[in-house]
Amino acid sequence: MSVTELFEPLTLRHGPAMRNRFMLAPLTNQQSESDGSVSKFDQDWMEQLAQSGYALIQTGAATVEASGIAYERQLGIHSDEHLSGLTQMANVIRTGGGLSAVQLHHAGHRASPELGGVPAPASSLTLPGVMALTTDEVERIRDSFIAAARRAELAGFDGVALHGAFGWILSEFMSPLFNNRTDKYGGNTENRARLTIEVIEGIRRKCGPDFQIGWRLSVERYGLRLEELREITAEILDRELIDYLDLALWDSAQIVREGTFSGQTMLSIFTSLPRKGVRLGAAGKIMSAQRAGQLLDEGCDFVLIGRAGILQRDFPLQVKKNPMYESPELPVRAQYLRDGGMSEFFINHMRGWPSFVQRFSV
């Protein structure tokens, strides 16, 4: 497929179309205010991204409850007090011509007590001495996701994206390893998927007809079973509950090593599903124009740019200019990121990623 096809528009089931096939992946950056409010660093970052040619820009993970915090200086959307900064952020993205979404997040059993978080496990076996959430508490968290989506709509965002990956609460409830509940949110596959589906359905009822819903899914670690996740995804796609599926793969080219789908690409397990009007994209080591184009050949409707967008903010524009564009080689010096307009908070966060920032660089 020609790289030029990455710049064709893509309609979504609700709301306006994407102007091209580039979506910015949700990027945790630990640069918000300590209470979760949008900081000047958040705003500066969004101003850069808004002029970078993306069709849809997602924020980093935003807390739907104060007690669900995972990171220091994590963006928040759990209070009406966050609306002012979020509105400014949505306005900046709109001015640049892109669509916008807040990624909704609750850390579940991984909530950080040091930051005021309250670990909220699905199972009493997950954390020593910490009881599983009661059914009422699960429903409270469900309603907090829905309320946060309504805040995003009030702030002017085009939609939200649910963080259902990496063992956070929605992912945790999907896992038979982390979820041994005996109520309606545990047991068989349908029950373990119930929290995610009730959140999606609640957002659709609460928000307007043009509001967009995305879902980020990972399929590795945390006791997740590929066969089950494919079954759940098939139902969500068949019922057209979402506008787009974001497959969070560590490597978009990875091969399944065991089980029913051994030898196949992880991506193909999901691109082969009938998806009706739902769009599907993938993230994972998309560091060049050619790889982005290949993913459309492999069945994706769009691509999610993460690390490549951190290295070069205007990755889509670079690709448009040069169909052979390649991202800078990793690791990079901290000064390289600084010169590109990245805050010290964000740079320090990226130092925690293996081989991204050169050790001891200033």
UniProtKB/TrEMBL annotation:
It comes from the Bacteria. Residues 5-322 form the NADH:flavin oxidoreductase/NADH oxidase N-terminal domain. Keywords: Flavoprotein, Oxidoreductase, Plasmid. InterPro entries: Aldolase_TIM, NADH_flavin_oxidoreductase, OxRdtase_FMN_N. Pfam families: Oxidored_FMN. The keyword Flavoprotein applies. Signal peptide: none annotated. CDD domains: OYE_like_FMN_family. Gene3D superfamilies: Aldolase class I (3.20.20.70). PANTHER family: BINDING OXIDOREDUCTASE, PUTATIVE (AFU_ORTHOLOGUE AFUA_2G08260)-RELATED. This is NADH:flavin oxidoreductase. It comes from Streptomyces tendae.
